[in-house]
Amino acid sequence: MTIEIADVIITSPGRNFVTLKITTSDGIVGWGDATLNGRELAVASYLSDHVASTLVGRDEDRIEDTWQYLYRGPYWRRGPVTMAAIAAVDMALWDIKAKKAGMPLYQLLGGASREGVRVYAHASGTDYAALKNAISGYEELGFTAVRVQTGVPGLGQIYGVSAAGPGVRYDYEPAKRSGDRPSEESWDTRNYLNHMPGIFAQIREDFGSDLRILHDGHHRMSPIEAARFAKDIEPYDLFWLEDCTPGEDQTALRLVRQHSTTPLAIGEVFNSVFDYQTLITERLIDYVRSAVTHTGGITAMKKLLDFAAIYGIKSGIHGPTDISPVGMAAALHLDLAIHNFGIQEYMPHNEQTLEVFQTSFTFDRGFLHPGDQPGLGVELDEDAAAGHEYTKAYLPVNRLLDGTVHDW
Ligand code: GCO
Ligand code: MG
User: Fold this and answer.
1) What is the pTM of this model?
2) What's the CA gap between 51 and 3, in Å, rounded?
3) What's the CA gap between 135 and 214, in Å, rounded?
4) CB proximity list for 249: less than 8 A, separation 6 or greater
5) What is the signed CA dihedral for 323, 326, 327, 328, rounded to 10 degrees?
6) 262-317 per-position pLDDT tens digit
7) How far is the CA of 316 from the centre of ligand 1 (A)?
8) Which one of the listed residues 71, 106, 122, 218 is annotated catalytic?
9) Rounded to whole angstroms, what are the CA distances from 206 to 144, 167, 176?
10) CB 161 within 8 A of CB 172
11) Which of 21, 70, 258, 277 has a 20 to 30 Å separation from 227 between CA atoms?
12) Where among 103, 130, 145 does a domain terminate?
């Protein structure tokens, strides 16, 4: 059998998604997530204008060869657009292979290494009272781990904080449909550094020591600021401090490591193992944060996580709402199978999205399971998808109070 058609489906059920549909000559369909938040059309074009025709007639079973063909063939390599496109092809081919085998994908990756995949939710609030309410709500749903983000005095809307009112699930959607340019947010690191340790102290006082607390610095600190922050929050026993500095400066974390044992997670903006080489070989991080969708797919992610395992580093795969249910399912199959699993991010998709993507993964008391459907276990309803037209959306741009552009 061979690949007969490769179609790109762009849909926007509340937020934008790009999905690749590969159909074989025997009519088997595989799905791949190609969503790159704020740059969706670039990946859609890379696939439809440059990749799709090269897939037709290829043996769908030759996944590794196709991966190498798409990585080395174009000459230009790496980068979020290229690697998201390769990821979509890779996911779709693994979906097809597992469907042909009549097995859930995790069985082809070595079978289950655990009963379920511990996940963390996003708890946020403009102030501590709202954050406390959100944490309580997620604990009541059975979550044993929450990422906590809160407003900072003197600042308006900042990354990670939902403006939604009190309730259990704050649907924090960072991409804004802001017309022809991004919205802008303001930031002051000093306010943040002075404010956050007290928030963690309050959380520990209110919720005790068992709850796993995660926090996302979102690239906004300098190396010495990150070193101070990681040291200041050490007493609160975070599960991880994420993206404490802009990760591309891999050696910056040597300074943070010198000052603190707070576990570090980095990599959601990375797209290849080479982005991690120093971080992993020098054990500068404890968790690999990439999404399957942004790192070249299941083939590349498995190799990356196996490399990390050699250094005692675990997975912490990226799972926000801008990773589609297809990308989330791919993560869950890897999470269930690999030995060095750490934790899985889980921002539940909204109802509109779940009408377009029929999923089979299940949530039970803080753990997800990918399900035992053959393949990835997600099907896209093309009629439902057609009902949600693409609308351009941008991630915000961040500026310091003096107007200097800063990492968002
Ligand atoms: C996370 C991420 C997200 C990103 C978003 C960008 O930890 O989930 O930091 O919140 O900002 O995925 O599209
Ligand atoms: Mg993050």
Assistant:
1) 0.97
2) 13
3) 12
4) 223
5) 80
6) 999 999 999 999 999 999 999 999 999 999 999 999 999 999 999 999 999 999 99
7) 13
8) 218
9) 15, 18, 33
10) yes
11) 277
12) 103
403 assigned to some structural domain: no
* Residue 16 CA from chain centroid, whole number: 15
Burial label, 335 (beta-carbon count in 10 A; 0-12, 13-18, 19+): buried
User: How many angstroms separate the CA atoms of 108 and 338, rounded?
Assistant: 11
Testing ligand 1's pocket by substitution, the residue of 39, 162, 216 carrying the most ligand atoms inside 8 A of its CB is: 216
Find the helix or strand (DSSP H, E) in which 66 lies: helix 63-72
Domain stops at, among 103, 119, 140: 103
Distance CA 180, CA 358 (A): 32
3-state secondary structure of 299: helix
CA atoms 397, 400, 402, 405: torsion sign: negative
Extended beta strands in 267-307, E state: 287-288
| Closest to 84 measured CA to CA, from 120, 38, 28 | 38
Residues with Cβ within 8 Å of residue 34, at least 6 apart in sequence = 8, 18, 19, 20, 43, 44, 47, 84, 85, 87, 88, 293
What residue numbers bound the domain in which 98 lies?
3-103
My answer on whether 161 and 255 are in the same domain is yes
Tell me, yes or no, whether 90 and 131 share the same domain: no
**3-class DSSP state for residue 155?**
coil
Q: Residue 83 sits in a domain of what CATH number?
A: 3.30.390.10
Distance CA(223)–CA(34), nearest Å, equals 32
Residues 6 or more apart whose CB falls under 8 angstroms from that of 27 comprise none
**Cα 383 to ligand 2 centroid, rounded to whole Å:** 32
pLDDT digits (tens, 9 = 90+) for 38-79: 999 999 999 999 999 999 999 999 999 999 999 999 999 999
Which residue in this structure is represented by tokens 């943070």? 256
Please give the single-letter amino acid code of residue 99: K
Closest listed residue to residue 316, CA positions, set 119, 170, 106: 119
Q: How far apart are CA 321 and CA 337, in angstroms?
A: 23
